[in-house]
Design a protein that fits this description.
By secondary structure, this protein is mainly beta. It has 1 helix and 6 strands; from the N terminus they run ββββαββ. The chain has a single domain, classed as Nucleic acid-binding proteins (OB fold (Dihydrolipoamide Acetyltransferase, E2P)). Helix content is 8%, strand content 44%. It is globular and about 50 Å long.
């Protein structure tokens, strides 16, 4: 059985790309806490590379940002490629098939303010009234 369930925080914003056939793929990594002894000097987190495909990739890319806590479920995949120096490289990643938002709603990034490019609306002057 190949099943992975992880709960952690995104280490950076997801990167969305599209294949030549038009399928969306999101790449991101999450940091999961380690349970270590209190006097341990070692690292206290593990970092996991994840990918998601198609609709799930677009949902992740549009709604998640660095620092957001999520739960992912999927399976491990190991693939290889030839590096520019001619050596063979191996990559192990979690192929995400399901995710959930976790944490408090206040953990979510702040919404874009009016007048920014992300909102698509101009900023109202202080004395203007909203027409509805």
């Amino acid at each position: 059985m190949n099943l992975v369930i992880l709960k952690g925080r995104l280490t950076k914003d997801p990167e969305i790309r599209y294949t030549q056939s038009g399928k969306a793929v999101a790449s991101f990594s999450i940091a999961t806490d380690k349970r270590v002894a209190q006097n341990s000097q070692g690292p206290k987190a593990d970092f996991h590379n994840c990918i998601a495909w198609e609709t799930l990739a677009e949902t992740i890319g549009n709604n998640l940002t660095k620092g957001r806590e999520i739960l992912v479920r999927g399976h491990l995949q190991t693939r290889s490629y030839d590096a520019q120096d001619g050596s063979k490289r191996y990559v192990t990643e979690v192929v995400v098939t399901y995710f959930e938002f976790c944490g408090k709603k206040s953990d979510a990034p702040a919404p874009a303010k009016a007048g920014t490019a992300a909102s698509g609306f101009g900023q109202l002057a202080d004395d203007e009234e909203i027409p509805f």
